[in-house]
Specification:
The chain has 2 domains: 64 residues, Arc Repressor Mutant, subunit A, CATH 1.10.10; 172 residues, Chorismate lyase. Helix 1 packs across helix 3 and helix 2 crosses helix 3. The longest helix has 14 residues. It is elongated and about 70 Å long. The C terminus is likely disordered. Helix content is 26%, strand content 33%. It has 7 helices and 11 strands.
Amino acid sequence: MRPAGPRFGWIAAELRGRIEEGELQPHQRLPPERDLSRNYGVARMTVRQALAELEREGLVYRRPGRGTFVSEPRIGVSIGSVADELLAAGGDPDTRLLRVERSVPTARVVQALSLGLGDEALTTTRLRCADGQPLAIETSHWSQTLMPDLFENLREGSLWALARERYGLVPTRVEVELETIALDQRSSELLGVTVGSAAFVLTRWTYDQRGRCFEFARDLYRGDRTAFRIHQLVPGAGAGGLLIVTE
């Protein structure tokens, strides 16, 4: 018996279940629209609506002239060290440094990092990959007051770990603004997706154990490969953990 609701909705639900249960594997081609139309006893327009819904959810992708395919599963990422999260999930993280420079910071960076007159910020732009596929572009501004020789000590992997080990800056609170955008040409090329694809933008303020902001960042994540887990400590629950404040 078919469930109530629009026909395209229950077709999408049935295909979604087959994808989530692993019956349909990543990059497997779905049957052509005409076959799905015949199998479900509906018009091809109804099938197109169902596939469009799955595409919006990031479960399938289309290749003109070739058909519709199952997408790679999204990577669950907590707001913190991406490298640590990927390792915990059994992935193979990789980082490519795209740009690093000392610069006179903008007014927003000065305010975020509480910089004084003439203080510089170090800016890093890194491409984060998972299992060989681009996942995110991270642009971070670091306080040169709190991390004076960071330029000479940059390394692969987690810069939060470097902040703890070399500078005694323990990340204890992160404030986050989360929004979605359509990717421009430069960002889409770096992330390996088409221009206009959906992406998550995270603007982050990272504070140490003394309440000082040492990193102000803008992270750009592929919308088709990531899903976020945002945790917030309940007041009175005790010490420990990372406090995420969302706005």
